[in-house]
Each structure stands twice: as C-alpha cells, then as structure tokens.
Amino acid sequence: MSYAVPPTRTAAVVRQLRNEIVTGELPPGTLIKDAELASRLGVSITPIREAIAQLSVEGLIDIAPNRTRHVTQVTQKNALELIDVMSVLACAGFEWGVDNLTDTHLDLMRRRQKEFTEALRLGNVLAAGAAGADFSSIVILASGNRELQSMVDLVVARTMRILAMTAESGLWNVWIQGHDEIIALLEGGDTRAALARYRQIYVDYRDRVERELFEDQ
C-alpha cells in the first residue's frame, strides 16, 4: 500500500470507493448506482464501472446475477477467514524476508511505526492502515517475492473494510505493541524471536476480533 497519486481516473475512483468502504462511509449492503457515483465523483460512467469491477475482484462489492451491486455484507465467518488468509500470506513473507533485513530496512520500519501511531493519534484510520501495512511490506519485499506482496495487498483492504475500526479501537494496540517488540528484537539480532512475535500478532488479533466485534453472533 502506498500514498502515490493514482495514474488514471479509474484508479482514482477505485481508491476513493475503497476508502469509503473501508471506513464504513459506504456501509455493508449499500446499493451501488453508477449514475449517482458518477455525478458525485465528477467522472463519466466508464471509470465507475471499471472501478466497480476491480472492487468486485477485491471482494468489496458483490455483483448479483441480475447485475445489481452492493457493498459486501460482513459476517463473523468471512472476517475470521480473511484474517486467517492474511496470517498465512503475511507470516510466510515475513519468514522469507526477515533474514535479509538491513539497517536501512530497520530505519524504514521505525519510520512507518511512528507514522502508524501518529496517524491514529490524529484520527486518520486510512493513513494508519497504510503505514501499518507498509511495516509488514518492508519485510515481505525483502524476501524478493513481489507476487506474494501483491496477494497480501489484495487482502489488506478487505480485512480493513470488514473490521472498519475507528482510531479509538483497542484492536490497534495489538499491532502497535507487536511492532514495537518486533523492532526491539530485530535491533538485538534475534530474527527467530521477531518472526515468532509477528505470528503471535495474528493469533492475538484474531482472538480479539472474534470476542470483541462479533459477540452477538
């Protein structure tokens, strides 16, 4: 994930709609209407339809057999399954990349962690999510496997959207504390312990999501 300016109108619409879905501005079940979106975003129908197709691939929009489109509904099952998939992909990338980290990588990880916590302090959930994802991406990309990173990126937006956490959510603390401890372990040269701590983040995160976000299911 990055802060780069999208190169096309379609990419800009994808980013805008993805952000609205992730933050809950477009809640689950919302009916998606091409003309309304085109008017609101000031673009033609074509980039809207292309963006909807992309977001359907990402699992953020459901397209029914009758061609009506809705923001994907949230259930405990798909939330926990996404976390499980994210865990498998991200932990594999972390394991493959952790031994290749340099001082430059560590400096970047410290910077992203600072951006992560600062964005939360300012209430900017999207920036926090991007910085938090970049923290892991630094290690995954150090593995040299860009295909894996592409797969992780695909799941990140879906996971964030399903959780739709506010800046005040205590769930962020699982990542903040975990990242801080991982940096300390890497600074001490203990890559195996850093990997184990990274895996534990997902165990703790899944448990808290199940207990705190889906108590009535």
Automatic annotation (TrEMBL):
The keyword Transcription regulation applies. Residues 7-74 form the HTH gntR-type domain. The keyword Transcription applies. InterPro entries: GntR_C, TF_FadR/GntR_C, Tscrpt_reg_HTH_GntR, WH-like_DNA-bd_sf, WH_DNA-bd_sf. Transmembrane segments: none annotated. SMART domains: HTH_GNTR. Keywords: DNA-binding, Transcription, Transcription regulation. GO terms for molecular function: DNA binding; DNA-binding transcription factor activity. PROSITE patterns: HTH_GNTR (PS50949). Pfam families: FCD (PF07729), GntR (PF00392). This is GntR family transcriptional regulator. It comes from Paractinoplanes toevensis.
